[in-house]
Structure formats: C-alpha cells, structure tokens
Predict the structure.
Amino acid sequence: MYKVKVYVTLRESVLDPQGKAVQQSLSSLGYQGVEDVRIGKYMELQFDDSVTDVEGTVKEVCEKLLSNPVIEDYRYEIEESANQ
Amino acid sequence: MKFAVIVFPGSNCDVDMYHAVKDELGEQVDLVWHDADNLDEYDGILLPGGFSYGDYLRSGAIAHMSNVMAAVKRAAEAGKPVLGVCNGFQILLESGLLPGAMLRNKNLKFICRTVELTVENNETMFTSLYEKGDKISIPVAHGEGNYYCDDATITKLKENNQIVFSYASDVNGSLSDIAGITNEKGNVLGMMPHPERAVDELLGSADGLKLFQSIVKHWRNSHVVNA
C-alpha cells in the first residue's frame, strides 16, 4: 500500500488573483510581513499493491488529469503505508 | 444541416442551444448524452455551457475524459464545425483541441451581464456573416473566463488570426481581451460569451444568430449543389 500526497499549484508565471486577495486580507489584519500567498490544491491518493510502478503512475495521472500543465505545476510525496 | 448538442451531467445551457438551432435557426438538432461514441450522423457539434461534473478539479477537466470527446475529436479532425460555449470552451481547452487555459476572473466574481464584443476575424466558418470590426452584444456568465496562454501561443494566435472575438473593454482579465479563439484549421471555435442567448430581439439581442447562420452558410456552400 502506498499513500501519495499530490500538491498542485499555479505556475510562478501565472497570476493568482485568489492568493493576492488573501495576501491583502492578511495585510489588513496586520500581518504586514506576508509578502505573497499562492493557493493550490492538495490531494491524497491511496494505491493498493496491484500497482507496480507507483511513481510512474503518479506522474502519468498528474499530467493527464490532476494538473493542467498550461497553468499548473505539481509535486508529490510517496509514502509506504501498512496494509489494513 | 444536422447539429448535435452534447449534454454532460451539469450542463445547463443545452436547452438554450437546442432552442437556438431548432426554433431560431430552423435546422435539425439532437441532444446527445456524453456517453455516445459516434457522432458521424451530425454535421456540426455544439458543446453548451454549464458546470459539467460540478466543475470538480478544474472546469471541464472531468468532461474532457468522457466517452463522447473521442468522437468530438474525430469530428474536429474531419473538419466539421465544433463550437464550444462557456463551459464548452473550457472543455475544448482541457481536451487540447484549443490552446491555453482558463483562470479565475481577475476580480474573483462570477460575471453575468451582456458585454460588447469586437469581431476580430470574419473570415471563418463561424463569422462570415459579420463584418470585421463589428461590435456585437452577447451575454457572458462565468467565474473562470480569464483566458491565459504562454507568450509563444499568444504570438501564434495573433499571427494566424485565431482570435475571433475580443471584449471591447476588459471583462475578466483575459490576455489580449480574448473572448473567443479557433484552432489553427479554423473549424473549432471556443468562446466564453453565449451566442445562443442572443438569437432573438425578445432576448435583448439577436447578434448571436449570425454566428449560427454563418455555420449553416458554410455547410451549404460545400454540401448543397446550387446553394
């Protein structure tokens, strides 16, 4: 069993209006030091033992569906988890 | 001419599209469910607006994996007119039939009002009945219509005259005020504004009707003798 954590974020070159609004809100709350906020998505995928190439599969699904490479980057962490 | 309006779970402009073709344009049209795998009997494909699959993950992301999209791609390759409006445009972007992607509107608001568009290119099968530079009134209704693509893509879009409609003034932050683009071949059009909601003066504007009439004119010229 593998637990895979996938993080999808907007590319650096892409403006994040939502993040900007949150940054401005933080600043008006008095947190002047928060220079930038970027908002992304966090996904957890559970793989069973039938998947042999976990990393290859993760890359594939990230590129095919979980992220849109035109505007988003992804990164992932793979953890071995105990059988339940 | 026979049109297919593709219906996904969560489509909500499918009936407007159907009405525009059947009652205002006077052509044949079927509503086609997303699990269909053959669109050979149709001469034109219409992807309507709405919130397919609840906009889960990204707008259009789940819909572009659905069964019917393989048939839509084949229709596009065969040169048939394919029009995606609003969520339909987003699905075309996700499927790679059109370049680029949509971001949240710059002001983070869902924008629902009639806007003025400029016809940038009238030499397409979708716009031949307009004049270049025409200003037309068409409603928009979207939260994610802020068109984005990289520098190389925008340069190419401009060079090939693929920008068909632009907003007369900024609406949602779109790059170059893009409201609608075609593919390189010119037979796939995606646009955020809703021409199907502007097909009769009763609706406030009939400026969208010419888009559908242009498609029919193009089809007649190539399929009907003595058209």
Remarks:
- Residues 2-80 of chain A form a domain with the Mth169; Chain: A , fold (CATH 3.30.1280.10).
